[in-house]
Design a protein that fits this description.
2 domains; alpha/beta; 6-stranded parallel beta sheet; about 350 residues; Rossmann fold
Length: about 350
Amino acid sequence: MTALRGSQPAVTCFGPARYSVEIREIGLPTIREDEVLLEVVNVGVCGSDLHMWLGDQSWTVPYPLVLGHEFSGIIRQCGSRVADRWQPGDRVVSETAAIIDPDSPLTRIGLYNLDPSRRGFGGHTDGSMTRLVAVPQRILHRVPAAVSMEEAALTEPCCVAYNAAVRNARIEPGDRVLILGPGPIGILCAAMARMQGAFVAIAGLPRDQVRLRIAKQYDCETLTENIEQWAFDGGPDGLGVDGVIDTTGVSASLQTAMKVVRPNGWISKVGWGPQPCDFSLDPIVLKNVRLQGSFSHHWSIWERVLQLVNSGRLNVKPIIGGVWPLDQWREAFETMHGGSIVKSVLQAN
């Protein structure tokens, strides 16, 4: 494959200090035989991008790092081992697992999202907030014709929510489920729980009113107070909710989850952050509660989510608060961080 010459602009986090993000010129990628050259169309702004912009992420970042891992695009070139399956012009979305160990025991059973050597786009290796990206064919998925590229770029957070609310929870029709946090993942978890047949409430702070109004479009109740009243008084027996999905990334929210979940219930924790817990975990033991972590996603989840979006059963349009050109990334970040919208999307080309 002929190496591309020149450079391209990229939204780059260049250090640990707050607001250490700017547009920088980077070299054009060269693809390997098992990769495609993807022209990025849309990139969703994730909470993790905001954390790196704010300098408060909970993992070690290899600076400088191009941000972005929620992306859709069009294939422009194919490596020699790819041409039998993919063609230039194909519309695709990419998973986040840019680098994995194919011989890992977890990879061999399909759980490459849990491979300790996994390195994700925009978190551990250069991401997609640029124009051209080299992507391994193993993590590509076709975008159905009826799905826009803006919608397709939100497949990744939908998969995070699917894993937390479907694969790692045990929701049954008629369950009462509380979602903590009305961010993109929280609202999408609420949508997934509703599709499972649960009665759902999503809890936030008074400053989250805009996001909570959007959450109502997914047929769930919204709470900024009286969370315990909804959990205990709203059920048939006063014992609490069947399950809690914690999407906040605030350690103290786990204490709320333990308080409101019923005996023999479950907690699915998808939000994560660096704060230590300063409370006892004994209620998990006393109540015989299952505490389940939920990280990332894998192949079959992506295929299912794309089917849900294509069929119209999962509508991601309400959470898209606006689309900004790549060079206006700062406004997109600030608008999303300010809470006046749920999700910002960048237009890369």
